[in-house]
Amino acid sequence: MPVSDSSAVPPAEAVGPLMRGLAVLRALTAAGGRRSAGDLVRDTGLARSTVDRVLSTLERLEYVRIAGRDALLAPPVMELGNAYLAAVRLPALLGPVADRLADVLEESVSIAVADGDGARFVHQAPRRRTMSVAFGVGDLLPAECGAMGALLAADWTEADWARWRERRAADPDLRGFPAVPPGAARAADSFAERVAFARRSGWALDDQLIEPGLVALAMPVRDPAGRMCAVSVVSHTSRHTAESLREAMLPRLRETVAEMERILAEERVRSGETDRGPTGTAERARESKRALGAEFLQSLARGLGVLAAFDEHRPEPTPAALAQATGLPRATVRRSLLTLAHLGYVTAADGRFRPAPRVLDLGFTPLNGLTLPRIARPHLARLVERVHDSASMAVLDGDDIRYVARVPTVRIMSVEITVGTRFPAYATSMGRVLLAGLPEEERAGRLVRTDLRPLTRRTVTSPERLAALLDRAARDGYALVEEELEEGLRSIAVPVRDRDGRAVAAINVSSHAGRRSAEETRETVLPPLREAAAAIERDLHIAGRFVRVPVG
Question: How many domains would you assign to the chain?
Answer without folding.
Answer: 3
